[in-house]
Amino acid sequence: MTTQRSTTTLWRPTGPEELDLVRELDWRAWPPRLPEQPIFYPVLNEDYAIRIARDWNVKHSGVGFVTRFEVETEFLSRYPVQQVGGQTILELWVPAEELDEFNSHIIGRIQVVHEFR
């Protein structure tokens, strides 16, 4: 008998460069952070991800994407939810040095669910 793991849906607004790296990783992992990026921050709701992709990524890169992916819920419990604005401005802060382990708990593939230009 196979036991299904409980997962949590996360979103990540991203630009074209990061999305190209995700594609190179077969849509199964996030690339390592750059030295000036000490935190990987997926967000907890789609609306917040849309606002970042549309209002920030498009302005800086000409295009913004929203991705959706599933992570094992039990694993995520180590990262407290960060409220960085209003009630729906919620993120998880994953230290860059833990990103490989975080990636190993992604279930399935990372999907692009919105694109803004």
Task: List its traits.
117 residues, alpha+beta, ADP-ribosylation fold, two-stranded antiparallel sheet, 7 strands, globular
Question: Could you explain the architecture of this structure?
Answer:
The chain is of the alpha+beta class. The protein has helices spanning about 15-25, 45-60, 75, 100-105; strands at about 5-15, 40, 65-70, 80-85, 90, 95, 105-115. A 3-stranded antiparallel β-sheet has the order 1-3-7. Strands 2-6 form a two-stranded antiparallel ribbon. It has a two-stranded antiparallel sheet with strand order 4-5. Strand 4 and strand 5 form a beta hairpin. It is globular and about 40 Å long.
Would you spell out the secondary-structure blueprint of this structure?
Blueprint: E1 7-14, H1 16-24, E2 39-40, H2 46-61, E3 64-72, H3 73-76, E4 81-83, E5 90-92, E6 94-95, H4 99-104, E7 106-116
Question: In brief, what are we looking at here?
Answer:
The protein has 117 residues and is of the alpha+beta class. It has one domain: ADP-ribosylation fold (Alpha-Beta Barrel).
Measured as a percent range, the helix fraction is 25-40%
Structural class: alpha+beta
Question: Which fold name fills CATH's third level, the topology?
Answer: ADP-ribosylation fold
**Overall CATH architecture:** Alpha-Beta Barrel
Number of domains: 1
Unreliable stretches, pLDDT < 50, 5 or more residues?
Answer: none
Shape: globular
Radius of gyration: 14 Å
CATH class: Alpha Beta
Assembly state: single chain
Average pLDDT for all residues: 95
Q: What's the β-strand tally?
A: 7
Total helical elements: 4
- Please state roughly what percent of the residues sit in beta strands, choosing from under 5%, 5-15%, 15-25%, 25-35%, 35-45% or over 45%: 25-35%
Please trace the helix and strand order, writing H or E for each element.
EHEHEHEEEHE
Largest pleated sheet: 3 strands, antiparallel
Strand order in space, largest sheet: 1-3-7
End-to-end CA span: 46 Å
Organism: Kitasatospora setae (strain ATCC 33774 / DSM 43861 / JCM 3304 / KCC A-0304 / NBRC 14216 / KM-6054) (Streptomyces setae)
Protein name: Crystallin
